[in-house]
Design a protein that fits this description.
Elements (H helix, E strand, L loop, with lengths): L7 H16 L3 H8 L3 H14 L19 H13 L6 H11 L6 H10 L9 H15 L5 H12 L18 E11 L2 E10 L5 E7 L4 H14 L5 E4 L10 H5 L7 H9 L2 E4 L7 H20 L5 H20 L16 H7 L4
Parallel strand pairs: 1-4, 4-5
Antiparallel strand pairs: 1-2, 2-3
Helix pairs in contact: 1-2, 1-3, 2-3, 7-8
Length: 353
């Protein structure tokens, strides 16, 4: 005889109705106990007399939801990530599934499918990293005490968020942070992506590919800013010799040593602040990570293998989409950009002397 399993609520209904029928109890009392009407009690009594315990099994039990995806599509989502979109963050992957594979699913479903396959995002939440670190440590040290486990996890995870946060600027153009990242963006050769991001709005205001991190790359970024927005108030960069050429000797002799980029900034009235502390320009450092996780994948999917093609895709497609997703409308911010000089003035200023 087939065993019939009921959930807690159905089991309670079954017991009350069975007791009512076996002992000719009070229907009003049964209705009060179950929180239903006497009419519903009569219906349950009739169903119980006809079907027995099976009458209390929910009608949707073992029924496949009409809005659920097939097993084939679920496997396809996992396979596509492993073979075609590996290394992509899950939010971006969900967007690419909709635009490139015509698979429109929620981020939650993608996350659940991939994590069930033991695939985790490149950038995971702190609590997730903590949980995974515990699992890995427990697998290697099955007899470790709880205190030892907690101490090990703290040592592995806790220092990642140890630096303090910085407040954003108030004005658009008040501080433009610049940096470059060198990886294999396309093809087989490393290239350098020069980025400039506005501290107040989080918008990318300049981006340019070159084979190395050079003055040429930063000049192109500066040109984009001047043509599209105007003269910014301040640049914040690292201590590369493109920006800062002061040595101990020149400082002692009180010489005004300017680089080519520094001279261009002085000519246009833009302050140039350099620092050797990466956290001081944390916004562009974080933007580099976000751009790496998205742009490299998009360049590969677009079949781009040249510097010119990458720069065209960067300015026409990627930067506008990035600002739409992660930036704020700069028109809503008070600006400190000065009016841009003429194209002839830009060309003569951004020159190598």
């Amino acid at each position: 005889m087939k065993r019939i399993g009921l959930n807690m609520n159905a089991e309670r209904k079954y017991l009350v109705i069975k007791e009512l029928l076996d002992h000719h109890g009070n229907k009003h009392r049964a209705a009060l106990t179950l929180g239903i009407t006497v009419r519903q009690v009569n219906r349950l009594l009739k169903k119980y007399q006809e079907q027995g315990k099976a009458a209390f099994v929910h009608g949707n039990k073992d029924r496949h939801p009409v809005n659920s995806l097939s097993t084939k599509i679920n496997k396809q989502i996992v396979t596509l990530y492993q073979q075609k979109y590996q290394g992509c963050n899950f939010k971006h992957y969900t967007e690419l599934l909709a635009t490139r594979e015509q698979i429109k699913v929620s981020y939650t479903l993608v996350y659940n499918l991939l994590t069930a396959a033991d695939i985790y995002p490149p950038k995971t939440w702190r609590r997730t990293r903590k949980r995974l670190a515990k699992q890995r440590y427990r697998a290697k040290h099955p007899h470790a005490q709880s205190q030892q486990l907690d101490d090990a996890v703290k040592h592995l995870v806790a220092l990642e968020d140890a630096h303090p946060r910085q407040a954003r600027c108030k004005y658009f153009g008040e501080e433009i942070q610049m940096d470059a990242s060198d990886i294999i963006w396309f093809g087989t050769k490393k290239a350098s992506l020069h980025l400039a991001i506005d501290n107040a709005t989080g918008n990318l205001v300049g981006a340019y590919f070159d084979w190395q991190e050079t003055l040429n790359g930063y000049y192109h970024v500066f040109e984009q800013i001047l043509r599209n927005y105007g003269i910014p108030y301040c640049f914040k960069t690292d201590n590369r010799t493109v920006f800062n050429y002061e040595t101990a000797k020149t400082k002692l002799e009180h010489k005004d040593v300017l680089t080519q980029f520094g001279y261009a900034c002085k000519t246009l009235g833009t302050n140039l602040v350099t620092t050797s502390v990466s956290q001081a320009k944390g916004m562009v450092e974080r933007a580099n990570q976000t751009v790496q996780s998205r742009l490299k994948m998009e360049l590969r999917l677009a079949g781009i293998n040249s510097l010119a093609g990458a720069n065209q895709y960067l300015t026409e497609t990627f930067v506008p989409a990035f600002n739409q997703l992660f930036g704020q409308d700069y028109h809503q911010f008070p600006t400190v950009f000065e009016t841009a000089p003429t194209p002839e003035k830009i060309n003569t200023t951004l020159a190598v002397f």
